[in-house]
Every structure is written in C-alpha cells, then in structure tokens.
Amino acid sequence: MILYKYLSFNSGKKLIENGRIGFTTAEHFNDPFELRAVNLNFETNPKMNNISEGAFRNRCNGAYAILSLTRQPLNALMWSHYGDSHRGMVVGIDIDEAGLNCEDMNLIPAKYGEIIYTATKPTKKLSAPAFKDRLRYFHFLSK
C-alpha cells in the first residue's frame, strides 16, 4: 500500500536525495490534544502515585518518534497545512518496502495506525472529519 507524506519543497528534496524521512517526537507537535486520549489513572494506580502525570507524559513524549502519513495525495486541507501552503510536495511511500508494517520495529504498525482528528477532545465516537485519512506510525527511540 502506498501512503503519502506532505512536505515543504526543501524537506521533500532532502528525502528524495538521501532516502530518509524524519520522525517527530510528540513534544514537537503543535496540537495540544496530541497523545492526550490515554487515560493513565494516576489517582487509582499505586504504581503511578509517586510521579506526576505531567512528568510521565513529558518523558513519554520524548521517548517515541512519530511519522504522519495519509491515504490522500490530493486533499486541499492537507496541502495547505502540511504542504507548505501548496508550495511543497507530496511523496508516496510504499509502507511494506519502508518496513512500516513490521510489528517488531514499530510500536503501531501502519496497518493499525489510523487516527481520527477532532477540534475538541471527544467524549464519544465521532464521524470522520477532514483529517480522517491521516495516519501516524510510532517508533521507539534508543540511544
């Protein structure tokens, strides 16, 4: 399956020249709701009561790298937001060739990575919004 990455022209040029794509740590996302859906139950979990939820989230946000892809190469909203205001490029990536379906290397393999975006934190299942085809893949970071 081919998935797509919207990029600025310079980032796309670098990807094509060196065959590498950058993953982003969650601490560098601009969305305040990123990775907030997880309920950690700090109040009731005895293993968690010695650390603060904020400290735990900060540690996790720097421990994982995320790749955002989409099924849609022609989405005007995605072009505007992620394609450098329509001045960038979109690159197709074969997720099997790139190893993004490998369960040993990915915390969430591509075949399981669909995320639905909303303007507010959902309290129930919502219908798919404009970003419904955007996918994210997580990798563990190690030193």
Q: Can you offer a commentary on this structure?
A:
It is a single chain. By secondary structure, this protein is of the alpha+beta class. It has one domain. It is 20% helix and 20% strand. The strands form two sheets. It has a three-stranded antiparallel sheet.
Fill in the keyword field for this structure.
DUF2971 domain-containing protein; two-stranded antiparallel sheet; 143 residues; alpha+beta; 5 strands; disordered C terminus; DUF2971
* Structural shape: globular
What is the count of helical runs? 3
Write out the strand line-up for the largest beta sheet, numbering strands in chain order: 2-3-5
Number of domains: 1
Pfam family, one: DUF2971
Protein name: DUF2971 domain-containing protein
Give the gist of this structure:
It holds the Pfam family DUF2971. The two termini are about 30 Å apart.
Structural topology:
Blueprint: E1 2-7, H1 9-18, E2 24-25, H2 53-63, E3 64-70, H3 76-82, E4 89-94, E5 134-140
Antiparallel strand pairs: 1-4, 2-3, 3-5
